[in-house]
Structure formats: C-alpha cells, structure tokens
Amino acid sequence: MVSMNNRYGIFSIFFLIILSACNKQEAVELPFPREKVVAILADVHVSEAALQPLFGEVKDSISKIYYQQIYEIHDIDSEQLKALMTTLKDHPKEMEAIYEEVIDEISRQKANISSAKESPEDEKIDTIDQSILKAKSERDSN
Per the CB 3.0–4.6 Å rule, which of 18, 61, 80, 131 could disulfide with 76? Predict the structure, then answer.
C-alpha cells in the first residue's frame, strides 16, 4: 500500500510535470522568414491606416488594390496571408514580439519619409496643386 506521504509526493511530481509542460513554449513555425513576416504586416497595417477615412464601395475597391499590391510585392496570396494571421492568432506571445518589430519597421519607414528632402520642383508642384485646390474651393463656394 502507498502511504499518504508517497501519494503527495507522486501527486506533486505529476503536477510539476504537467505544469512544466504547460509552460513550455514550442517554437512557432512561421510560414515565411521572420523578416518577410514583419515586412508583410507592416505593409498591411500601413494599407489599413490609409483605408480608415474611406467608406463603402470606394473603401472596398481601394482595399482590393492595396492587398493585390501586397500580394505582388511579397509574392504571396490571400490564403498565405490568412494562414500567417491564423498562426499569429494561435501564438499570442510570438504575435506580440513580431508586432513590436512591425511597429519599429513602420517607425523607421516614417522617419525615412520625413527625412527625405523635397526638390525645388516638388515644392513648385505643391504650390501649383494648392493654388488649383484653392481656386476650385472658391469656385464651388460661389
């Protein structure tokens, strides 16, 4: 017969084994290299941000165009993107780590855009564009 102390000992060992098995983080197998995942997700989020002010059919049409561009740029299809999103959803800690990299990538891209110098021709074009918009606005208000 097993004594009470042995039962607690066996139970404790069994409990520790189960607890350690639950805490083990298995390596997440991403469908693409990590760098590609970050680049894809950065483009997806920039596209989604650009779609925010749009509504209805316009939003749907532009969304299709943006996603088609993402598929072409990264040489993927919609099913592969869905599989990636499912993998990340199933592994929230990995998703959190990747999204930190995505935020860093978007910040880096934004900094590169901000630091790009405009040429004098670009400034002239901007001035012309503003003049045209102002003239249209004045015409529409009359």
Answer: 80
pTM above 0.85, yes or no: no
Q: From CA 16, how far away is CA 14, in angstroms rounded?
A: 6
The pLDDT of residue 111 is 87
CB 69 within 8 A of CB 127: no
Q: Give the pair of three-digit tokens for residue 122.
A: 């670009």
The 3-state DSSP composition of the chain as helix, strand, coil percent (nearest 5) reads 80, 0, 20
Q: What is the pLDDT of residues 113-137, one digit of tens each?
A: 877 755 555 665 566 666 666 666 6
Sign of CA dihedral 110, 91, 97, 79: negative
HEC letters along 64-97: HHHHHHHHHHHCCCHHHHHHHHHHHHHCHHHHHH
* In the predicted structure, residue 32 carries a pLDDT above the cut 60: yes
**Cβ 41 vs Cβ 102: under 8 Å:** yes
Judge contact between 66 and 51, C-beta under 8 A: yes
